[in-house]
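[audit] Reproducing an earlier prediction to check determinism. Same input, same settings, fresh worker. If the tokens differ from the archived copy the diff job will pick it up downstream; this log only records the rerun itself.
[audit] input (313 residues):
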Amino acid sequence: MYNVLVTHDLPGNYIDSINGINIIRRPEGEDANAWLLKNIENADGILITLNEKIDKNLIDLGKKLKVISTYSVGYDHIDVDYALKKGIKIGYTPEVLTETTADLIFGIMLAAARRIVEGDKIVREDKWKSGWNPEFMLGAEVHGATAGILGMGRIGNAILRRARGFNMDVIYYSRHKHDVDAKFMPLDDVLRNSDFLFVCLDYNKDTYHFMDMPKFKKMKKTAFIINGTRGKVINEKDLISALNSGIIAGAALDVFETEPIDNNNPLLKMNNVVLTPHIGSATDNTRKKMAEVAVSNLINGLSGKPLIYEIKK
């Protein structure tokens, strides 16, 4: 019988429905990474989330390890090259969360542009004293504005379709041109022309701190940057400086360099920034679909069948 380590309970009953496999769950309150290190030696498979670090040391300890199934679309928390070199299969959960994540990203863009969170706070704190006023709470126009998309993968394509619904002029930059209803431009042109810049880049060594001060300085002073994919593609220190100095107008962020965000992070005090706690895929249906895929990847990997979504390089 195969032994499988499970670091977190997942939505739905997919884990409970697994037959013929010894499921070993992490005790509540125990650190997931420390628990994996203690128990990986006899594990044939692991079902993890993006919070767990699967590095060379842990992989070496997992001498029986056959499959790593991560409940996420991102996999930068796994030493993929080393795991594949060891013959370990790696499953992940793309596609099923694309539309849900794009909904959230477009939503926080609207919230930042139209100052929705700021307005909600004014009403709740009884600070709305003037009634309707022609110059009160003026925001940025979204309909007909220029949307710039960095990275035209699944999420970028989903953002494009939503932007078209708002009659936005869509431009994009990507490593390769795509057959999409948007205009490909060099990076600098996308930065200079975008009213709303959507960061939809995969995270890797080439995209770490991709958005930094030199790039912010090429953007419009009225522009907003939106990130709901990978926190570390933005140099957060430079972003804070750009927002404080008026180099750009605002930001909408669902992901951050460090999560959870530190209580002393200056972003928390900025009215021109909308912040959400990494909830891009957080709907009941999507999280259940992710669990179904993650469990199927695990079972298939142990039984020698093709994974539904497998990372290969």
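[audit] rerun output stored. Observation attached for the diff report: The mean pLDDT is 96.
[audit] end
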